[in-house]
Amino acid sequence: MSEAWTPSTWQHHPAGQQPEWPDTDELLRALKTIATYPPLVFAGEARSLQSSLAQVAAGNAFLLQAGDCAESFEEFSADNIREKLRVILQMAVVLTYSMGVPVVKIGRIAGQFAKPRSSPTERQGDDELPSFRGHIVNGALFEAGARRPDPERLVQAYHQSASTLNLVRAFTKGGFADLTRVHAWNQEFVASSPEGRRYEQLAAEIERALNFMRACGIDTEGHPALSAVDIYTSHEALILGYEESLTRQDSLTNRWYDCSAHMLWIGERTRDLGGAHVEFLRGVGNPIGCKVGPTMEAAELLSLCDALNPARIPGRLTLITRMGADHVEARLRPLLRAVTDAGHPVVWACDPMHGNTYTSPNGHKTRSFDAILGEVEGFVRAHGAEGTWPGGIHIELTGDDVTECVGGGDEISDDDLDNRYETMCDPRLNGRQSLDLAFRTAELIRSGGD
Ligand code: PEP
Ligand code: CO
């Protein structure tokens, strides 16, 4: 990894999980088009996020990273985006209020389109077609035309990211996220549940606190810390041609930033040290993440930290562990120790979703709320034992009342999964389950996992 980095040096490394684009000219044309488009985010914003993440690394703040497993070209509407933001805001307010620390909010949003797959092809009966790799690549329908990787989709992903981000900025800065509206974030189907009622109580306390501040003469209306929030964007940097075409040199610092999102992460399947994904992300100035699964060894993790954050900049690197509820404590502890001893100032975030996926008897890919909570619990306990800060959670959720994960307050059963199973990829927590998880996570962290 001694070669001087440029946005295209990844091309000299083996790149896993790339689609086989049938027409190279078409691909190059699409990438060239995107390269002429404006950046989606700005370097200064990525740097602000990195400073906030440095606070998480230091144990003074908490990270909430949440959103869809895969965003869809078809379910793309203002309602859909608003409902997702509503849950994220609710979870953030619960975590902030219960833990008493700032919560850094990052959506899996405005660019989370590409999916790694366990097999490049899918077989149904006698037919074999390319696997569905997310709407940035092909269509989900098991049909030759839909599954053909289409570079025009890269361009469409850019445009959808741009309009999603526009709406995220409008909602978070334009009054929707004002803390005086804390009650209005509670959706009807959530409000009637025990966790919804618990949220109402908390919202009432916040309202009382705001009234108190106003009575003391503090102007809560015009205060930016109360009337607007920062929600940053992130996605898995999987399709490297797309990421390269949005990588721009910052005129202030001359550094390269991947301007497709504020934060980018490397997935569990593409995190090999000599691979193209590590090569690409090591050179961009954005804060970056890396998934860490149950097979990770301490020595390999240290090499990854050295490759991705050689200067040991706090907030630059977030390690997103996804071990599975049964393994998390035992597997995580040696990693926490090794990284701490080596002096790497990372953010540790818990993805309690991807190590706990299984197929239900009626054929749905699902996760149980108990296992998700169990992984958060093991994560918090491991950190308690090693004296490190359980810095955040990384969640797949939706604002809608779906039935994709079993369990939770309303005890979704295997049979219920048939009712509203709408995800394009992995099962997501619904609004009630997400809120419940936020309350429980805050409690676990306050009590050190006991
Ligand atoms: C994901 O975050 O959607 C994902 C595919 O995760 P992982 O790389 O951890 O399997
Ligand atoms: Co997923």
Please provide a written account of the structure.
- The chain has 450 residues and is α/β, with parallel strands linked by helices.
- The protein is built from 14 helices and 14 strands.
- It has helices at 24-36, 43-57, 78-99, 144-147, 152-173, 188-191, 194-215, 224-227, 240-245, 276-282, 298-308, 328-341, 369-386, 431-447, and strands spanning 62-67, 103-108, 121-124, 127-130, 231-236, 247-249, 256-258, 263-266, 288-292, 317-321, 347-350, 358-359, 365-366, 392-396.
- The strands form four sheets. The protein has an eight-stranded parallel beta barrel with strand order 1-2-5-8-9-10-11-14, surrounded by six helices.
- Helix 1 (24-36) runs parallel beside helix 5 (152-173), helix 11 crosses helix 12 (328-341) and helix 12 (328-341) packs parallel to helix 13 (369-386).
- The chain starts with 23 loop residues before the first helix and ends with a helix.
- The model has no long low-confidence stretch (mean pLDDT 95).
- The protein binds phosphoenolpyruvate and cobalt (II) ion (CO).
